[in-house]
Amino acid sequence: MGIRVGLIVVLLSSLLIQSASSQGSINVAWTPLNETSTTSYRNLINRFTTARNYGSEGYIAAQNYIRDWYTELNMTVVSQEFDTFNDNVTGVNLIGILHGKKQTQNFFLVGAHYDTMKDNPGVTDNGSGMSAVLEIARILNVMFTYNCTIDYSVIFVGFDMSKPEPDYGDDPPCPLSAGIGPCGVFNFIDWLEKYLTEQDNAQLLGTFIIDSILNYNTSINSQIISEDARVLLPDYFYNVSSGGYKGNYIAGVVRAADVTLAQTFRDSWVTMPLNELYQFQQVDLVGDATPNPNVHIQLPTFFQSEHMQLWAENHIAMLITDTLKQRGYQQTCFDKSCDNLQFITETNYEFGYQTVRAIADSIFKLGSGNCNTTIPPSSGSSLLPSLITFISVHFVAFILFVL
Ligand SMILES: *[C@@H]1O[C@H](CO)[C@@H](O)[C@H](O)[C@H]1NC(C)=O
Ligand SMILES: *[C@@H]1O[C@H](CO)[C@@H](O)[C@H](O)[C@H]1NC(C)=O
Ligand SMILES: *[C@@H]1O[C@H](CO)[C@@H](O)[C@H](O)[C@H]1NC(C)=O
Ligand SMILES: *[C@@H]1O[C@H](CO)[C@@H](O)[C@H](O)[C@H]1NC(C)=O
Ligand SMILES: *[C@@H]1O[C@H](CO)[C@@H](O)[C@H](O)[C@H]1NC(C)=O
Ligand SMILES: *[C@@H]1O[C@H](CO)[C@@H](O)[C@H](O)[C@H]1NC(C)=O
Ligand SMILES: *[C@@H]1O[C@H](CO)[C@@H](O)[C@H](O)[C@H]1NC(C)=O
Q1: 293, pLDDT greater than 70
Q2: What domains are there in the chain, each with its CATH number?
Q3: Ligand 6 first shell, C-beta below 6 A
Q4: How far is the CA of 87 from the centre of ligand 3 (A)?
Q5: Per-residue pLDDT tens digits for 17-50
Q6: How far is CA 127 from CA 50, 114, 207, 212, 306, in A?
Q7: pTM of the model
Q8: Mean pLDDT value across residues 308-328
Q9: Pocket-forming residues, ligand 1, beta carbon under 6 Å
Q10: Can you point out the beta strands (E) in 42-120?
Q11: Where does residue 289 fall: left (phi above 0), alpha (psi -120 to 50 degrees), or beta otherwise?
């Protein structure tokens, strides 16, 4: 395992060295992103506003929408069904593979969970993350359409079974007691290992896990940060406390092994700000290579998402989050019916979209992105065909429903 990590680090650094030499073409690639419109991302978020607990209407609709989106972008689509601890419940991870234009055997991964608790619209958690995954796929597809290349293919995934399903009482599909964390990612890793082996022993070079990215709050004391962080995350604690505990940043959580991802993300973040006030805080874990959530119980929002299992399997990964229930309205609305659109202003869309842009740009840089053509600024336009597809696919269902 140690050798594998070493190999990944070496591969990643060699990619970075190459990417430094193609800096010139990167700016050209990002011409469409000069457009600061959040329209496409906003429309996506507005598709994820009803509860997506197992078997619900919103859950099925979200699955169909994600699959249609992948299909529209000419991605390879895999619906990975997996058994849960409840015989009556089958989870579904939605995987889309966007093949790089260059011959390559390696992969990058971007993922977010799409399920929610019952009666929880889950706009911020985690509709904002799933929408980001889809929007990043769209941006990269536009770039490939314009003959831009990156050195790897990108796997996108919507994870199921991230949330516990309390309705199942004594027989939950993914009990905490199983000790495997969210069941979706646990099963996804099985699929991934097999897939990489089949692709000529390809490598996974890195992963961005996105979990709730819309919540931005500039009020003093809008950010909760536990005293544990003073010791465990001293730089982060210092920055947030000296800033007056404002929830005005996106956090990137990394171990020493993942630091390249955070640095690349930071570089992208600061060079394409939609608003100079939006901050990035790197959360560097010190000491414990793979943190034990039982020890770091006071820092739950950094240690419960899908990156934990990727770390456990020695994959390079970074969690990108607005800190979920430790900020502003999510202190009361997390997993509840008020995680809906009422709090979402143009600023929130823009703050979330800044993360979308920075991740897409990071993927491009890490993959030695190259573009020879100029892309006209029209980032929202290719959404329309997708929406038309969505509407036509659902039209029959809609008519039946109305009747
Ligand atoms: C986009 O940004 C780049 C770099 O800032 C600039 O050179 C270019 O002129 C901009 N393009 C448009 C269409 O605004
Ligand atoms: C998907 O592939 C088809 C056939 O090659 C092409 O016409 C279409 O433009 C592609 N769509 C996207 C969004 O890349
Ligand atoms: C599965 O569903 C059946 C039929 O509704 C029910 O009788 C059974 O108790 C359920 N099993 C579990 C494990 O929930
Ligand atoms: C992309 O490359 C193809 C084949 O070389 C060429 O026909 C097409 O015009 C290029 N597209 C753009 C937008 O440059
Ligand atoms: C803390 O803030 C300073 C100044 O904005 C910044 O340079 C530094 O990177 C921040 N530290 C972290 C851990 O984000
Ligand atoms: C910001 O956080 C404060 C404190 O949690 C909360 O009362 C307020 O509603 C939040 N504002 C926004 C715009 O979310
Ligand atoms: C871009 O241009 C360079 C030099 O002209 C060429 O070697 C390379 O193949 C081109 N890349 C693409 C994607 O067309």
Answers
A1: no
A2: 2-402 (3.40.630.10)
A3: 217, 219, 222, 328-329, 331, 343
A4: 8
A5: 333 222 222 233 344 444 456 788 888 887 777 7
A6: 10, 6, 19, 7, 15
A7: 0.81
A8: 92
A9: 27, 31, 34, 377
A10: 76-83, 90-98, 107-113
A11: alpha
